[in-house]
Thioredoxin
Amino acid sequence: MSKKKFGILILVILAVVGVILAKELFAKSNIESTNEGSFSIEQEYEKIKKINKPSIIIFTYEGDCCESTKKFFDNYNSMANKLISKYKDSFESLYINTGILSKDDQEILMKIANENSVKKLPTIVIRNYEGKVIKVIEGPFIEKEVKDIMDGLVK
């Protein structure tokens, strides 16, 4: 293979990887707090509390763990992100990955969890237009049940 063809092949591969990463980052409509503090969980939570729109808050985990736990959370997070995408125009969403929180964010997380009756991971909290908690779903969820609740809140 010539150097020119090899260079073009590398550029195409990089472009494809870039498109896939950009799609994943921007299509999920989720907020994750990082150690660099690029997003403020507290600010996003306060926004959700004040906006006149139903909301869904997902407390989950993405990180290193045993294979069976990783498989469970990968499946759970995939289903949760599909819900967020489907209802992005009707619901505000906050996706909290507890596996990458800074010390400050951990304190804020505890406050948010307490305000929403979250006791374990993973958990989905569905809130109505007034910010009242309608449903707290701990552990695995049935997609149809969650969709039925969310559909009932859409005006």
Remarks:
- Residues 1-29 form one domain.
- The chain has a mean pLDDT of 83.
